[in-house]
Design goal:
Mean pLDDT: 88
CATH topology of the largest domain: Glutaredoxin
Number of domains: 2
Low-confidence stretches: 7-15
Radius of gyration: 21 Å
CATH superfamily of the largest domain: Glutaredoxin
Distance between the termini: 50 Å
Number of strands: 5
Number of helices: 8
Structural class: alpha+beta
Length: 180
Amino acid sequence: MNEKTETEAQVSDSRRAQHPSGDDRFSLLDKHLKRVRYSQDQLIESLHVAQDVFGHLSDDILVYVARALRLPTSMVYGVATFYQLFTFEAPGDHTCTVCTGTACFVKGADQIVQAVSEEFAVPVGQTSDNGALTLRTARCLGSCGLAPVVVLDGEVLAHLDASKTVEKLKGCLAKTEEKA
């Protein structure tokens, strides 16, 4: 291989390695989109991958997925806003999701939400000012036999009350502070 061809190959490789936006996370999303052959019926899966990669779905990411799958942006936005699992703002260092379905509500989910909100100064659906905690609610997590259910950083915790939930959160936040 001559020098010019070798240099062109290196430039081509570097372009493939870095997304034009400069954000390498788009390259991960691009790999997924290519793997599913830019199939429109893979919209929900593609949104899940995008959220896993970026931590949330911003307007830019929704537009990017819409263009890649050749779908109207309004359709992509409509699907993303329909499902409870998609988020549109960057989450805090820790996330706490409290199920507020009927079984959980009857067994004290409201008290859990109120206690966490007051103790950590974080309104429901938002992230604390210091970025440490995001508090969310979900209409039903499908674990009614475990009510009330709290999902803390992806771990499902069952049969908690307000004080136990606050204790668990304090423990998580203390571990984060120790690492810092």
